[in-house]
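User: Could you check the structure of this?
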Amino acid sequence: MICAETQEEARHVAGTAAWRKMMAGRGAKEPLLSPEEVEQRRRQLSPGDQAELDATRDAMVVGTPEQCWEQFHAFARDYQLDELGLVTVTHSFADRINSYRLLAEAR
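Assistant: Sure, the predicted structure tokens are below.
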């Protein structure tokens, strides 16, 4: 889950987690990359790998506080859940705290 003030910012920050997840699926282990490093590497990928990275990010809960809450409520409703756990993987600790803060304030 990556929550930010704007959808664009959330997608940018989420690049770190999407890259990490995609690379883990390929057996690659490396430190968390900054969103800027992810974007640089993305430009070097084949179109198919770029699409995979985009699909990985699109499968995550990423957006504004309102968008994230909507997605969480839809998951809870669709899967008849009483509670949800969430994880925020970011390069910057400040981005992680901001993500949790925004979501908490949206409630």
